[in-house]
Amino acid sequence: MNKVLFKKIKKSKPYLIAEVGVNHENSMSLAEKIIKQAKLGGADAVKFQIYKAEKIASYKSPYYWDLRKNSEKSQYKLFKKYDKFNKEDYANLKKICQNYKLDFLATPFDLDAVNFLDKLVPFFKVASADITNIPLIQKVCETKKPLLISTGGTTTKEIIYIDKFIKTKFPQTELAFMHCVLSYPTEYKDANLEIIKFLKKKFPQRLIGYSDHTIPDENMLVLSKAYELGASIIEKHFTLDKLKGKKGNDHFHSMDLNDLKKFRKNIDFINLIRGKAETRKLISCEKISRKNARRSIVTLGKVKKNTKFTKKNLILKRPGDGISPIHFNKVLNKYARFDLEDDHKITFKDIKTKI
What pLDDT is recorded for position 72? Predict the structure, then answer.
């Protein structure tokens, strides 16, 4: 199993994870349709969530999502609806992903899931809710594979703690943090994308990404802005185009094929216009404009030989293929070496310092 090394991810092409989660609704055929559309949309990876209801939530665990979008009030009952896939099913999903040349990923929610996923995934993802789950994080780190952790619902202090824990206990583990807001769906005003810049500054040795839970906006500007702010890995829930917006589960805040295409198109456009910030150089397309739109020092009226150049007999006009106005003071108060016609572009041969 080859690793996906975070340090080799190209910043110009963010690594895009289509988070299927359990939008497959326990259907292998639906899962394959979603995988196919993720590929068509330009995803790099498809990710699932692996859990068993009895291992993730108590029977009376309360909800934390918008009941207008999902009316189930019990975490246990909701998770129980979509935990029917087994190890063989996930192995088959990996094969399907391979057929479409996509990385197969899955978020483990218990230690047993880590064990069998180790043979299937190129790196691990730990969900926001488990950022303080030390036994799970430790188990993942023991696989020696790269680790992606979402930071939804955390404080800076907690992120620093986990960063230090991994750095101390597992210094060889390649770690990346994902800015995330633990709210389903996340209101646009709560997206707080500037945290991406904060995380990049706070953890300069870590790759920073963004895991999104907002309702897909018309032009996919949330994800595009996250990329502009420095997110090298983008993760968003993904569903079949026919199921987008469906109530229940994660369909209601998932993007679909068209959303994914829009985002990739935005990235291509952003990369086209952003250029490089190394230094200001003359761009090839500017050369003719630079020459013809800049100005030269020109005579204003006829100037007789031995006449002093002053602001009254000089003017600055286009094109800029004569003496640049930047040298205006070098011409001022000098003398004409020859009789010069009106609108004559002055050269240094036309100038003398004394009569």
Answer: 84
Q: What are phi and psi of 119, to 5 degrees?
A: -85, -5
Cβ count near 351 (within 10 Å) = 17
Task: Compute the average pLDDT of residues 36-43.
Answer: 98
Distance CA 233, CA 208 (A): 7
Give the whole-angstrom CA distance, residue 235 versus residue 220. 13
Instruction: Yes or no: say if 212 and 223 are a contact pair by the CB < 8 Å rule.
Output: yes
Taken in order of first residue, the domains within the chain and their CATH numbers are 13-274 (3.20.20.70), 291-352 (3.90.1210.10)
Cis peptide bond N-terminal to 319, omega within 30:
yes
pLDDT tens, position by position, 284-331: 999 999 999 999 999 999 999 999 999 999 999 999 999 999 999 999
- Measured between alpha carbons, how far is 80 from 77 in angstroms, rounded to an integer? 5
**Residue 212, CA distances (Å) to 21, 121, 166 in order:** 13, 22, 24
Contacts of 184 (CB under 8 A, 6+ apart): 64, 65, 66, 69, 70, 213, 250, 253
Average pLDDT over residues 156-182: 97
SS3 content of the chain, % helix, strand, coil (to 5): 40, 20, 45
Dihedrals phi, psi of 242, to nearest 5 degrees: -75, -15
CB atoms within 10 A of CB 312: 9
